[in-house]
Amino acid sequence: MKYYKYFFLLVIIGCSSSKVVYDYDSQTNFSQYKTFNFFEDAGKGLNELDIKRVTYEITAALKAKGMQLTENPDMYINILSEERESVNRNTIGVGLGSGGRNVGFGISGGIPIESRKINQQLTIDFVESKYNQLIWQGIATSEIREKATPEQKKLHFQKVIGKVINNYPPK
Hints:
Blueprint lengths: L1 H14 L3 E6 L10 E4 L9 H17 L3 E2 L5 E11 L5 E10 L2 E10 L4 E12 L4 E13 L4 H16 L6
Parallel strand pairs: 2-3, 2-4
Antiparallel strand pairs: 1-8, 4-7, 5-6, 7-8
Helix pairs in contact: 2-3
């Protein structure tokens, strides 16, 4: 029974697709970057709990690629988030109708469904620490429910960060 709850969460979160774009300096040799850390002010636009979720997911993804979190890194990571409310066009339609013998009558209406969502643009910048230059950038645009639970937020960031970091290093 407990597994059905997680399956249901995955189905709901899986329905909201995220779009990912990335850019990088084509002259950069990315194999030289083996260590990373986060800027002190990384996470602008996110609350403290979401900053922890995002940095945890980025750290896990980069460690899986063989990189290490260290105090004197080869590159620093900056995280920016911009959010705006999504336009909700979901309604339930109600209608009455009658007709016959060339006479017609009809009434219809829409009842809005309250499921406010937020469009989120998450930007992840990799900055070379020696010269303080941007070397790689990933931007994910996704949608999340305004009243998402902590578990839903964790799964959301896991999915989004996974898609973004999948494109690093560039091939």
